[in-house]
Amino acid sequence: MPGTEGKPGRNCPRCPRLAAFRKEWRASEPTWFNAPVPSFGPLDARLLIVGLAPGLQGANRTGRPFTGDHAGLLLYETLKRYGFSRGTFDARPDDGLELIDCRITNAVRCVPPENKPTPAEINTCRDFLMPTISEMPKLRAVVALGKIAHDSVVTAFGTKKSAAPFKHGGKNALGNLTLFSSYHCSRYNTNTGVLTPEMFRAVFANVRRYLDA
Ligand code: URA
Predict the structure, then answer these.
(1) Computed over its alpha carbons, how large is the radius of gyration of the chain?
(2) What share of the chain is helix, strand, coil (3-state, %, to 5)?
(3) Where do the domains of the chain lie, and which CATH numbers do they carry?
(4) Under the phi-then-psi rule, with left for phi > 0, alpha for psi from -120 to 50, and beta for the rest, what region is 188?
(5) Nearest atom in ligand 1 to 51's CA
(6) Is residue 152 a contact partner of residue 56, using CB atoms and an 8 Å limit?
(7) Pocket residues for ligand 1 (CB within 6 Å)?
(8) Fewest Cβ atoms nearer than 10 Å: which of 93, 109, 117, 161?
(9) Relative to the CA of 104, which ligand 1 atom is closest?
């Protein structure tokens, strides 16, 4: 099924490796979502968070970004702390959690083997990231989780990566919005201390100050 209006269809064929991986998981786990994961949150939000790609047993299983795997725990807890959500996150898409002034998407919409999309897949899926950005009329801030998401957003704005290098806690102006960047809140990064909850909160505290100014 072709995508409509800048959204990938359930059977998006554009990345053959990802389509083949999806087919395998549809066969072995037919009750899972196993499709490009849509963005979550209101279109009129001022903040867009860009993750890397669905986790196999997280968003790929549940159909909601960062829902059902370890990476979502710190993200949703932090969003709540800074007033970007209402309700209780319970790692299920029917937990009733609502995002406030915030939307979450991924640089790559389909689950990649070993959480590693290829450069070609990242480039291809940017065709869905760009309309996700442009369909948000009030957008003022983007938080990129990890260097891959950061670089893909920078490229989506037609900016050279060297002009807006990735740095945890860094800020770059892109057109009339600000890109805030963080290490990805993956299990690996949080377990190894590359990213502590305090470091992650500091990024969202900055975003909150910027939006409230
Ligand atoms: N889940 C997502 O949706 N995105 C990530 O980047 C990681 C986990």
Answers:
(1) 16
(2) 40, 15, 45
(3) 16-212 (3.40.470.10)
(4) alpha
(5) 6
(6) no
(7) 51-55, 58-59, 65-66, 69, 71, 106, 145
(8) 161
(9) 3
Interhelix angle for 197-212 vs 70-81, to 10°?
40
User: Quick one: which of 62, 95, 100 has its CA closest to 82?
Assistant: 100
Adjacent-strand bridge partners of 181: 144
206, two tokens: 């900055």
CA–CA dist 109, 90 (Å, integer): 22
Q: How far apart are CA 191 and CA 74, in angstroms?
A: 12
Q: Give nearest CA residue, ligand 1 atom 1.
A: 66
Q: Which residues of the chain have pLDDT under 70?
A: 1-5
Reading the block at residue 26, the tokens are: 């549809």
Residue 188 φ then ψ, to 5°: -60, -50
The alpha carbon of 48 is separated from its chain's Cα centroid by a whole number of angstroms, namely: 8
Task: Give pLDDT, residue 3.
Answer: 52
As a whole number of angstroms, the distance between CA 179 and CA 150 comes to 8
Give the pTM. Answer: 0.97
Rounded CA-CA distance 2/133 in Å is 20
